[in-house]
Amino acid sequence: MFDFLCIHPFRDGNGRVSRLLTTLLLKSHGFDLVRYTSLERLVEERKDEYYGVLEACSTGWHDASNEIVPWWNLFLSVLRSGYRDLEQRMSLSESPRAAKTDLVRQGILEQISSFTLGDLMLQFPAASPQLIKKVLGQLKNEGKVRLDGRGRGATWRIA
Questions:
Q1: pLDDT profile of the chain (159 residues), mean per 10
Q2: Torsions phi, psi of 130, nearest 5?
């Protein structure tokens, strides 16, 4: 989310790197939200708005006349959305009718980029590795996810 600074050291992936750094900064300052909710997914859901604000806030950057408040408001709004999403998932998990399987399934289907079994284990600390593997297997059989590679380097992605 800090890519409004117009620093583009890479040919591709500058936005992803900036959102990764944002996640790292948030985590290091106690915002554990990023452990349970994908900042990348939240931004992806508002991609048009995100790029519009980014462009507006970049205008005048070179002469320090740019306006940062719209970007800051969007950033805070994205974080608020993440907390609401987490709150909703937490209330579902407290419901006696909600099964861990359903929560893991929903979380897997919300992934934006490729992910590993380890990523899911961090995202769902209350779920056993066996449960996560079972849900992945079911989703694979349904054609909703696919596995790339084998062993520890294997990654999953939404089909």
A1: 53 78 88 82 89 88 88 92 82 61 88 88 85 94 93 89
A2: -65, -40
The residues that bridge with 157 in the sheet, in sequence order, are 146
Q: What is the DSSP letter of 5?
A: G
SS3 content of the chain, % helix, strand, coil (to 5): 65, 5, 30
CA distances to 25, 91, 95, 102, 154 from 131, rounded to whole Å, are 31, 20, 19, 11, 18
DSSP, residue by residue, 37-49: S-HHHHHHHTHHH
Look at the alpha carbons of 82, 85, 87, 89 in this order and tell me if their dihedral is positive or negative. Answer: negative
List of domains in the chain: 1-97 (no CATH), 99-159 (1.10.10.10)
Three-class SS of 94-130: HCCCCCHHHHHHHHHHCCCCCECHHHHHHHCCCCCHH
Q: What are the residues facing 147 on neighbouring strands?
A: 156
As a whole number of angstroms, the distance between CA 22 and CA 1 comes to: 6
Residues 6+ apart with CB under 8 A from 57: 4, 66, 67, 68, 70, 71
CA distances from 3 to 42, 55, 97 (A): 16, 10, 42
